[in-house]
Amino acid sequence: MAGEGERTPAVSRAIRVLALLEKSGGNPQGVSEMARQLSVARSSLFNICLTLEADGLIARSGNGYRLGRRLVELGGAYLRTDDPVQAFYQACNETPLLHDEICQLAVLDGTEVLYLAAHAGRMPLRMTASIGSRFPASITAVGNALLARLDDDEIRRRFHDPSTRPGWTDRSVTDLEGLVEKIRAVRGRGYGRDVGEVFPGVRGLAVTVAPQYSGEQAYALGTSLMQERCDDDIEMRAVEALQAMAERIANPMNLAADGGGRD
Predict the structure, then answer these.
(1) Nearest Cα to 96, choosing from 244, 228, 204?
(2) Predicted local confidence at residue 255, as pLDDT
(3) Coiled-coil region(s) at which residues (predicted)?
(4) Confidence (pTM)
(5) Nearest CA to 31 among 11, 50, 12?
(6) What integer pLDDT is reported at residue 1 of this predicted model?
(7) CA 40/CA 216 separation, integer angstroms
(8) Which residues of the chain, if any, have pLDDT below 50?
(9) HSE on the CB side for 69, CA within 13 Å?
(10) Which of 73, 91, 146 is nearest to 115 (CA)?
(11) Is-contact 198 209, C-beta < 8 A?
(12) Could you tell me if 242 and 233 are in contact, meaning their C-beta atoms sit under 8 angstroms apart?
């Protein structure tokens, strides 16, 4: 990977423009304001925006810019070539125990999880983790499952800053040593579990998906269940279904076979 000094300045600034517009939440950003936030000359940023606009990566909106539709096409092309994503959707549809539930496929990115795929299910539970969403790894079941692959010292280093351990509910674990202990429990249990840490009344469960190739990033496969109807027996059945789905996703050749987790 190229170091900071080896990057082409114009390309680097274009990427920073896209990242800034991503963080704007859909609110149009003017060239002057973006130049100020990025600490670059307005004239230079104006030319970059014209190029990005010509290629459909950003679009004019009022007196500013927002992300363009071309990014959707590029993102879709990436997802179509990412075998675990396609395998995830097929496994969700073919697993009766979970195909009505909310399911997610995520990867670890620093102290957050990035959701690559999401299955809405049919249960009366609103799905908030859509494709491209980022959630704190410290409180999510998928995040905890992926953090269990790291050792305690790496977790302490990565989550040293308290801002990386937000408290979304009164059940969220925000203490660093509490997080380390929680991840130790995940290793012993064999799957990630959050009970009301992200949303009150919701129990999250997650397992890791073994990488298909050496050096490939690990994935986590999770589901969100309503706490009021999720006892220990249902939890274990859901975890077994997730584990069977994870095996099928890790080896796409298994997708044609009868998988576990079927009733």
Answers:
(1) 244
(2) 45
(3) none
(4) 0.68
(5) 50
(6) 46
(7) 36
(8) 1, 4, 254-263
(9) 1
(10) 146
(11) no
(12) no
